[in-house]
Every structure is written in structure tokens, then in C-alpha cells.
Amino acid sequence: MFTAGLAAAVVFAVPAFAAQATGPGLVVDAGAQPPRPGQEFALRTTVTNGGGAPVTGALLAQHVPEVMEIVEVEGDGVVREGIVNWQVDVPAGEEAVYTVRVRAPEGEDARERLTSTACLLLERDSDPTACASDTVVPAEGTVMSRVSEYVEPAGLLRAAGVALVLGLVWILWRRVAVVRRG
Fold it and tell me: How far is Cα 118 from Cα 55, in angstroms, rounded to an integer?
């Protein structure tokens, strides 16, 4: 009985201890909304440093699937063969965000699962200290989403206003016609 209680205490204590880990960590976020085919979106990688010492001169390497076009790399990132590399310096107890803007594929690749993985290497020739991934599946492009790409919101509001005014004019004209008849 005592052994089972001790085993249960260890099993429940390990996750709590792991949650208090103080080393560097990563989170990759591709956004909450799945992109439409051909739409640009951001892949954000957050490097956290919960340790007591700063992370300096580390390498963050983020793999971008081959079917996605890399549009822009923020900061001093360098793209080489579909992998974006940044030199990472994060003070103790802080975090830094690294962003790469990509375009979702179109055509046959538009429904493919897209997974981006980032790894943090504290030393260039060492194994990764932390890795993280996020996966998106591009949403199907609808007729309205395709139209909205070419029509600005202000233009839609003007068109709706003109339609409302024309509708009111038509209603008034009909009322005047009915009153004249009789």
C-alpha cells in the first residue's frame, strides 16, 4: 500500500517538476485561422528563457515546407534551402519572437498538411535543446473569399450604401404611384 502511494506521488510530481523546468523553450504558432490557398500568413516562433543565465549566440533553425513560398523574414534571419536561421540572444527570464511570412500553396498542394518545425541549438554542432512544430491545412477558397481579395472593404460599403439609397427611392416612388391612383 505504501509503495503504491509512493509511486502515485512520484507520477504526479514529475509533471509538476517538469513544468518548472528552467531551460530555454520554443513555441511555433501558425495562427488561429487556416490560410486560404495563395494567402500570406505568419509563422511565429517564440523562444523563452526561463533559466538564470542568458542565452547568447544560439541558433534557431525553422524548417518551412517546400510547397510554401517564403515572402519575408523578419530580423536578421537567413534563408538557406527552405530553412530560416537566426542567431538568438535571449536574456534570462525573457522571451524573443522570430517571424517568417509565407504564402500558402495553390493548386494540387493547397489541401496538403503544412508543418513547420523550429529547433534551438545552444551550440552550432550540438543536438537541439528544444524543438516545436505547428501544422496548418489551408482552408478551401470560397467564391466570396476570392472576390474579397479584389474588392476593398470601403468599396463594399459604398456599394451597400448606394443599394440602400436606390431601394428607398424605389419604395417612395411606389408609394407616390399608389397615392396618385387613388
Answer: 16
